[in-house]
Design a protein that fits this description.
Strands 1, 2, 4, 5, 6, 8, 10 and 11 form an eight-stranded antiparallel β-sheet that branches. The chain has a three-stranded antiparallel β-sheet with strand order 3-9-7, with no helix packed on it. The longest helix is centred in the last third of the chain and has 13 residues, at 153-165. Helix 2 (153-165) runs antiparallel to helix 3. The chain has 197 residues and is an alpha+beta fold. It has two domains: 11-140, Glucose Permease (Domain IIA); 153-196, no CATH class. The protein has four helices and eleven strands, in the order βββββββββββαααα. A hairpin with an 8-residue loop joins strand 4 (47-52) and strand 5 (61-67). It has helices spanning 136-140, 153-165, 171-179, 186-196, and strands at residues 11-15, 31-35, 40-41, 47-52, 61-67, 71-78, 80-81, 88-89, 96-97, 109-115, 133-134. The protein is elongated and about 65 Å long.
């Protein structure tokens, strides 16, 4: 499935998935995010609103969305909820507004992703033992990463060497693709192969 971040625009992680702490499970089972440009919250994928405020007061105002692949995403601490149970939502449906309801210190979104339905992990468990709870950052992959990973130095050097050796006229364009981990088009691939043959 094609997942997206729950914000339009930039955001930061204020508490990552898996961090140890005084939560009921002993670790943070979601990601806490703070919108830097907008506080509007959108679904990470299309689906149906499965529940509204069904998982306890700690989450404050919260909803879950069931997706076609069986995953269920939870959006907690909202200041306002804009959808109803049973409503079908697209990736452009406004779910609610980031807030600080429930057990929250400051405005943020707490988001969880569960495989096969929402289920809280047992106390004293670990993320490795609770494989049905997923880290949203891993789902997003290349679609949109929450934490940009540095491209290895050898990849940049290899790109630069190929561009210089084969006398590419657009080395800056290729370096940007490498630095942003972009996939080249078939036309670009054949163009490189033609120069190398």
């Amino acid at each position: 499935m094609d997942y997206q971040a729950p914000y339009r625009g930039k955001y930061k992680i204020s508490c990552p998935f898996g961090k140890k702490g005084d939560w009921a499970a002993g670790w943070h089972i979601g990601n806490d995010l703070v919108g830097l440009e907008s506080k509007n919250i959108y679904p990470i994928a299309e689906g149906t609103v499965k529940s509204v405020n069904a998982h306890g007061k700690s989450y404050g105002k919260h909803i879950t969305v069931l997706h076609a692949d069986g995953k269920e995403s939870l959006y907690a601490h909202l200041s306002v909820i804009k959808v109803k149970k049973g409503q079908y939502v697209t990736k452009d449906t406004l779910l609610g507004i980031e807030g600080a309801t429930g057990n929250a210190h400051g405005n943020h979104l707490h988001i969880e992703v569960h495989e096969g339905g929402w289920r809280y992990p047992p106390k004293g468990s670990t993320p490795k033992e609770c494989k049905w709870i997923l880290d949203l950052r891993e789902l997003l992959l290349e679609v949109e990463t929450m934490e940009k990973k540095e491209v290895p130095k050898w990849q940049k050097e290899a790109c630069q060497m190929v561009c210089e050796t084969k006398h590419f006229t657009n080395p800056d364009d290729w370096m940007k693709k490498v630095e942003n981990a972009e996939t080249p088009t078939w036309g670009e691939i054949f163009g490189v192969l033609a120069k190398c043959l």
